[in-house]
Structures are given as C-alpha cells and as structure tokens.
Amino acid sequence: MDLDVFVTAHRAEWDRLDALLRRRRRLTGAEADELVVLYQRTATHLSLIQSSAPDPQLTGRLSQLVARARSAVTGTRRASWRDVTHFLGTGFPAAMYRTRHWWVPVALLSTLLAAVIGWWIGTHPEVQSAIAAPEELRELTRPGGDYETYYSSHPAASFAAQVWTNNAQAAAMCLVLGAFLCFPVIWILFLNMLNLGVGIGLMSSAGRLDTFLGLVLPHGLLELTAVFVAAGTGLRLGWTLIDPGPRTRRTALAEEGRAAVGMAIGLALVLFISGIIEGFVTPSGLPTWARITIGVVAELAFLLYAYVVGGRAVRAGEHGDVAEAERSASVPIAA
Questions:
Q1: 264 HSE (CA, 13 A, CB side)
Q2: Are 8 and 15 in contact, with CB atoms under 8 Å apart?
C-alpha cells in the first residue's frame, strides 16, 4: 500500500471527523450520523495502516482520533445497582461455567496431590522428622496444640478479615499470573496443596485426622474451590497466549483478561463468605457434624450457582465479558 496516496485520499475524512469532535454545540441528526460513519471508516483505515504500512506517527494520530470518536459515539455511563445485579446474576456465574473444563480438573488433580502428599508424610516417619523436631511435631498435633488453636488464636472478626485478605490475594495472583504462560499458577497451587498435605500427613500420623478434617472442611471446601476456580481461569488465560483459537492473540487475551478481572471480583465475594465461616464457624463450639454441614451446604450452593445459574446464563448468550458497548472497538483486519 502506498501510504502517501492513502493519506491523501482519506485525510479530508479524518479532518472532518476531528472537526465534528471539536464542535462545542450539540450536533444535528445529520451530523451525528456522519460522525458515526466517519468513526467506522477511520477505525478501518487505522486497521489497514497497522497491518499493511505501519507508521508510528500516523498510527498514533488515528488511534487518538478513533478513541475520541468512540467515546463520543458510545457516550459515558455510570455503574449502577443494575450492573451489580447483572454481574452476580449472569456475568460471574457464566464466566465460571465457561471455564469449568479448566477448574474442575484443577480441583481433582490438586486434591489428589494433597492426598498423596498427606499419605507420604503420614506413612514415612523419616519425612516427618525432616519437617520438624519430634517435640515440635507433638506440639502441633496434640489435643489443644497449634493446629487446633490456630483458628481461635485471634478475635473472630479480625481473623476472618485476615483470612479473606490472604485468600483473595492468592486468588488474584492465580488470575493475573496466568498470563505468564501458566507456570506461576502451577507453583501457587503446589504450595497450597503442599501445605494442606503436610497437615493431613502429620495429623493422620498422630491418629487425629478426624479432628483436622473437622477443622478444615467447614471453610476449606468453599475456600479451596474458589482458589481452584481462580487457578483454572488463570491457566486458561495463559493458554490463550499459546493457542488463541480463531481470534487474534490480542483480541483473545483482551476478552479472557476482562473476564478474569470480573472473576477476581466475584471470587473475592466468595472468599469473603469463606472467611466468615473460618472466623466464626470453624472455631465455634458447634459439634463437628454441624460445622461440616455448614461447609457442605455453602459448597453445594456455590456449585449450583456456577453450574445451574451459570449454565442458564451461557445458554442465553452470556459470556462473562463486559457488555459489547463497553468493549474496545473491534475493527476489520486486512488479509
């Protein structure tokens, strides 16, 4: 493409678009229609220049012009409670449902890994001695020891807030670091499962696995599921860089990235509920069966939310991405 000829042919359209955008008075109906047409043409021109004859100065000018025009065409809007309702009712569960083929295998493999680590530690005294001295292990696992008192060592409200903050950070790291080709997410998952497996192994070797599970399950079911969802979403985001499918890599990463940001917000709410359970239910005087029942009910409610509500939303056309009007302009790409 001859860039000079192209610029000469279309400069008048760009100048006209710039003039319309600078108008201080309200545009007439005909001028508004002209603005939309010129915006679409200029966006196409920008795409052609980027793919055929990239020129930094011209590309920068047209990018700013297209951004200003898009803002004028779509206008601005403020978030409302309707947006919150839409996000919680369709957007967030749809995003979870769409990524279920990632986070369900992640959950199964991670749980298996924690169980194997727990079995290995619990059946090998030499591994236990490598973790800590015998006196320290007894202090951890004895009745009233560190494993039991951990959940009641701080006031419930502050403990719940601390737990929520830590778990939300872990989930956010899984979502964000997934863009780095998946490896950081796998490492974060491994550390979490290693920590859980050590607890299982040490408490089972002391004959107190039932006590450990009675302390972990009430909040751990929902907490770990949220982490698995975050990890699965992060891994999908990382895989998008490797295999974007029929979309361009930039478009695919933008779409999955926006969905991941929404997932981070939704999972923060889920982990807040888990933190409340961990702060107020786990260390409570309720019988073990009652505490575990609360955890199971919370877990089932979450899974129903993800599969039933999310599946219904996806079948209705929801993708978990932001509304189409809020997305960046998608322009044709020259072959």
A1: 20
A2: no
